[in-house]
Amino acid sequence: MRKVVSPRPSGHSPALLLTSLSGLLRAWLPRQRWFAGKGREITELSLLSVTELHPACLHLLVSTRHGTSPSQSGDCYQLLLGVGDVLPPRLAHARIGRASEGPLAGLTVYDALQEPRSADLLLERLRTPGTAGPLRFERDAKVAVPAGLTPRLLDVEQSNSSLVYGNSYILKVFRRVQPGINPDLEVPWALARQGCTRVPAPVAWMRTSQPQVATLGVLQPFLPDAVDGWTLALESLTAGRDFADEAYELGRATAEVHLALAAAFALGAPTGRGNRRLAAAMIERLDTTSRSVPELVPHVDGLRAAFDALAVLDPGRPAQRIHGDLHLGQVLRAGERWFVIDFEGEPARPIAERRQLQSPVRDVAGMLRSFDYAARSRRPWRPEWARRCRDAYCAGYAAQARWDPRAQPALLRAYETDRAVYEALYEARHRPDWLPVPMAAIARLAENSPVVSGSPHTPIPSFHSAQGG
Description:
By secondary structure, the protein is α+β, with helices and mostly antiparallel strands.
């Protein structure tokens, strides 16, 4: 049995508690998949807030810095730490270490999100709104969440951690915390108010008021039988099946979400100056990336032409809230229906930036790149599979939105080019073996090849009949 800590850890000041935790966290944090500072030494670590959720579980907001420059901003992480004298064997994988000094000296510290008791407590807090120190737990009064749902921590976490309760609800715990309302709460809540059923609606959430107001987690319905789009696409490729029907319906779903977003949030007036600013930002990213990815250099002039064409475009459709990071891994298919998830955006970007109004064509371009990624991840490469998926997706989008992304080829090319440049930098840094995938697209885009093969001016085809590969 775990012994309750006495005196209680939260009874000590953060500075005193840090003497017990600093060394452990400096070693443990860089090993976590959601930690943003991989490869960089933690030069400064501080506790921004400490809240006792139960006598052996602490909720912490931890600030880390890398380097010595005062101008370098730090990162804030959310941790739930368990503390006790003995760690049961079933929690050995959750162990962070044993404190050697300070108020926790001689006690074992572990990741409490992997402990059922602490996970149960989080759900109970969300079921019964209230506060715990600076933490506030809230829920949709129209939804009654049952008690006693068995928790399990998903092992596919990346930038966050997710707990599934009884295959009924999923709690996303934001590991990297920024001031403001997180888009993964703000957007699904607004879409639910619009009656959009393509996005699971939040039923409860947690936030903090210290050191600033910030979203900490969101509880939503869980789709136990759903499969993500990336998995389905790869299964289609492996089996030699066409994926156009699914892509068509996914295009319709994307347009449905975009229409609801346009109704839920204010629109931005389209201006030529906005296109020039956008093009300038894309050119800057291209120049910066080409200095890190030598393979990009021969294509820079051709890629820059795509952004130059964007800069002189006449103002198009109004800017609006979008998903911002749409790809096959951000959509789920349950039965015959597509759902869109993960509106958080890139956690490394400031929340204000992630909330900016943009063209919905950016989301479309992200999905087009994802079809290409899927096609090139299997050998032999099937370019016709990717082309049919792109055509079908745009056709489905046009059928629902009543405008065709292919009718704006310069805008679509610019966004797809910008995405491919980002992919090239990511692969060069993290998965060099995958670099040929974005580089193939870069070669095509630098030559101003069509993004999709279908004409935006021809009648929208039907993709609802069975089609072979």
